[in-house]
Amino acid sequence: MSSLNPGSAMIIEHQLRQAIPEDLARLRQLLRDGKYVHRHLDWRSPLDWLGYQPFWLLLSGERVEAALACPPDPPGVAWVRLFACSEQERPSDAWHALFPHVLDGLGHTGVVAAIALRPWFANLLEHEHFTLHQRVVTLWRSLDLPPGEFLASGRAGELIRPMQLDDLEAVEQVDARAFGWLWHNSRGDIHRSWQQAAYASVAVVGSEIVGFQFSTLSPTNAHLARLAVHPSWQQRGIGWALLNDVIRYFRAHRVSQLTVNTQHDNHASLALYRKAGFRLTGEDYLVYLYTH
Ligand SMILES: CC(C)(COP(=O)(O)OP(=O)(O)OC[C@H]1O[C@@H](n2cnc3c(N)ncnc32)[C@H](O)[C@@H]1OP(=O)(O)O)[C@@H](O)C(=O)NCCC(=O)NCCS
């Protein structure tokens, strides 16, 4: 593969190789100047994946023209954490050069998954034989509205308290049981969620952690990033109690709105959020899968 250097008539040969930590500055430049940049919605920045494989680069001379990172985490699920391409390259050409190396690196097991946040990336994935798996929808609620009352029936007698470091192992177990395989969070991600959350809390029955939530805060709103109740304890008012405690917490901190994402076919969470006063915003993201 080669391209024309705009400053001269010289043909620059491209090279393909795995990314290494020393590529950090070159990759920063691609993320800053690249015409096409997909960053996964994540607790980590795409560059935090340097040092993990598969993470492949397309270079012309010392310049990184394109990058594709899909390290599996948790095992068996390789999200596209980064795909970026300079304006010298067509995204489809860069993808064709990089993706076979990524598949080799994955050992042809598991799935590659991607959340398309922009139409150009959705088009590319569709052309490259990814199949549409789900839609992630966004809901919004004004925090001017008061929280809901505790549910009259089915209370499990839980206590909601702030999450502590010692809780993370139990939180990981609830997460693994509550979410389908595609949406599991690894131990590392649970730890990062706890470190980055503006408010993280657990629901405890007796001495058992049966549910949890992580919420973040931006200058405009709070965002409920993850909410889960252990399947043995669902439909007893615990999700409702965790959610309304979040609403109470951010109202007390004078935050004016709360957003949340969920899957379009996650009927339990959609019913919960609607009951708590959330409305769909119409901002959807498409989730694609590639099985090899
Ligand atoms: C979504 C979830 C957190 C709900 O927690 P929960 O403790 O079971 O929910 P609650 O018992 O507090 O239910 C509160 C309300 O939510 C709705 N709801 C909860 N589960 C429901 C279900 N399976 N079907 C329909 N409505 C449901 C109901 O409106 C319910 O009120 P009601 O009991 O008066 O009808 C739980 O199902 C879960 O952990 N799911 C897996 C993880 C997940 O999808 N998280 C959210 C997406 S990020």
Topology order in helix (H) and strand (E) letters: EEHEEEEEHEHEEHHEEEHEHEE
State the assembly state of the protein chains: single chain
| Model regions low in confidence, pLDDT < 50 over at least 5 residues | 2-11
Report helical residue fraction: 25-40%
The CATH architecture designation of the largest domain is: 3-Layer(aba) Sandwich
Beta-strand content bin: 25-35%
User: What number of structural domains do the residues give?
Assistant: 2
**Average of pLDDT:** 93
Cofactors and ligands: coenzyme A
Shape descriptor reads elongated
CATH superfamily of the largest domain: Gcn5-related N-acetyltransferase (GNAT)
The whole-angstrom Rg is 21 Å
Number of helices: 7
What is the SS-derived class? alpha+beta
Number of strands: 16
Gap between N and C termini, in Å? 25 Å
Write down the CATH topology of the largest domain.
Aminopeptidase
- Describe the sheet with the most strands: 10 strands, mixed
| Text of the CATH class of the largest domain | Alpha Beta
Notable features of this structure?
292 residues, alpha+beta, Aminopeptidase, 2 domains, 10-stranded mixed β-sheet, 6-stranded antiparallel β-sheet, 16 strands, 34% strand, disordered N terminus, binds coenzyme A, Acyl_CoA_acyltransferase, GNAT_dom, MshD_Acetyltransferase, acyltransferase activity, transferring groups other than amino-acyl groups, N-acetyltransferase domain-containing protein
